[in-house]
Write a structure and sequence with these properties.
33% helix; single chain; alpha+beta; 7-stranded antiparallel sheet
């Protein structure tokens, strides 16, 4: 009788171990795609944690960042970035052009309430009813326009999500503001904007509350 009880306990213990291993194996194989990406995807532009907080768990994830330049255009350069898992994506572009802060705000005019924050001449904007999109504005004169001190030389980053997201509402809005800000800060450096500028570690927190 005692031997039978021990066998049952041993069998139950082995079953539990197998179940735990199977569960851990499932998590490792099917949900850790983003964790396998570089700590800073898109050539070091953004924090992987932002994508992990924004997108659902998935078996696979991919990322890419690319700088595009033009010597014959007002849009002297653009840096693009995306992180994708299955049917969900967080992406953005930081585009050099000519737009004053006032003109930029007007270009985003809408009947919807807007939420914005600023620091060190850098501005972030989101529409209250559209937390899945955010913009960041930074004054920037690219090298190809170094002799042209036009007041509107700027770098504008837009970030968005497509498909299902893990975060929603103000949490998603903040993630996208941070994503756009990090993207703009990276593009400012690799695009060689001429103005010396100190970027804060992060912008003030943005919220509808």
């Amino acid at each position: 009788m005692q031997i039978t009880t021990k066998k049952r306990l041993l069998t139950a213990g082995i079953t539990c171990v197998i179940a735990v291993c199977a569960a851990l194996g499932y998590v490792e194989i099917f949900t850790k795609g983003i964790d396998r990406l570089p700590e800073k995807p898109c050539s070091g532009a953004v924090d992987r944690d932002l994508a992990a907080r924004a997108l659902p768990s998935a078996r696979k994830a991919e990322e890419r960042g690319k700088l595009l330049t033009s010597s014959e255009s007002i849009r002297a350069f653009m840096f693009a970035c995306y992180v994708r898992t299955d049917d969900s994506i967080i992406s953005g572009e930081a585009d050099a052009g000519i737009l004053t802060p006032e003109a930029w705000r007007k270009s985003k005019s809408s009947e919807e309430p807007r939420i914005s924050v600023s620091a060190n001449g850098i501005h972030a904007l989101s529409l209250e009813d559209e937390p899945e999109t955010a913009w960041v504005y930074v004054p920037c004169t690219p090298p190809s326009h170094a002799g042209d001190r036009h007041a509107g030389h700027s770098l504008i980053a837009q970030a968005r999500t497509l498909g299902e997201t893990r975060a929603h509402g103000d949490e998603l809005r903040q993630i996208l503001v941070d994503f756009a800000y990090q993207l703009a800060r990276h593009a400012y450096e690799v695009g060689e904007c001429q103005e010396p500028r100190e970027f804060p570690e992060r912008l003030p927190r943005i919220s509808t509350k």
